[in-house]
Fold this protein.
Amino acid sequence: MYIESISFSKKPINGIGWEIKECNFNKINLIAGQNSSGKTRLLKAIDTLVNILSNSNNKPNSGFNFKWEISLKGQNNNYNYELEFQDNTVLFEKLLINNEVYFERDKEGKGQIKYESKKDLVLSFEIEKNKIVLASKRDRTQHPSLENLFKWMNTVYMYNFGDTLGREISLSPLRTIDEDDTFDKLNKDDNAVVLKFEKGLEKYGTNFTNEIIKDFNNIGYNIDDIGTTKMSDKELTKLLKDIALPMPSVLYIKEQNIEDRIFQQDISQGMFRVLSLIIQIKYLEYSLDFDTTILIDDIGEGLDYERANKLIKYIINKVKKLENKVQLIMTTNDRFTMNNVPLEYWIIINKQDNGKIDFYTKRTHQECFEDFEDIGLNNFDFFAGEYYKNCLGLN
């Protein structure tokens, strides 16, 4: 299952906010745009919706009106889901499966839903105003068609490449890898890289480590070992011993021809972000059993041209090899990244003064994209020179 399109708005009550109108996706996508154009907001619109539907305790901020409309394409079914939320109240919710209404409710919590155990039977219901039908009506017997939606929600992962990706965080003593339930809760945390490395090594052995080293070296780094070790802080050791908790772990690498190990807090930020992303994608690759959506914000941020180029190619090639099980959505405003991603994967994002966000893709503006490809300039010029606007006479 993958996202075909999403519309989203966030507006202060009785005020003007911003709006994403029908952004269409392929299996591989690069969202290009200037700073503050809405790239990160687009990814967070997806991630926030998934978190709300996955955990009934997560609610949007009060004082705003939130509205989502998302289309998902599965192997057997297509899903169109709408949700409007305001001040802890669901104003509207509707799900279509293959263009037929599966359920619908109003702001009073009243609605109707299909009962699949008996053909053509539709049941009336009334739930609390702050409850979401999709999260409340999960039942494998009565509503089996909803299961693929829940499986998809559990396999949406967001990585903030412009952030630390766990460089400042060790494996917390409370997050022991022996507790599978704890690990499942942290599996989507892009800072929990130490935990994922130790869990991957435990489950998949040295092949897991060797492949990480190989992939990392192919990006342009040269290491011959990677592992974890316990922290060696005497005061922390005594404190944790007194309260019967294990010492936390930290990642280390050993560069080729150098004896000393380099611990994660001493690894440069760019180098560690690449390492962290490779570890986390490798863990996903090993554990993949359902369609997965990977969201990466600010891919290539802070890397030199050569390594940004190799990282982008690595990620795209990895997704291609996973036999259509993965959808990839990345954002960037980095010229190196743009120059190394084919225009067929591009989604150019443009925010207007009124807060509305427009999109330009090869699907929506085929002639503009193809005309530029014939010119022979690099991809960044298509964005920086606003050729996508000029060919439409918008400038």
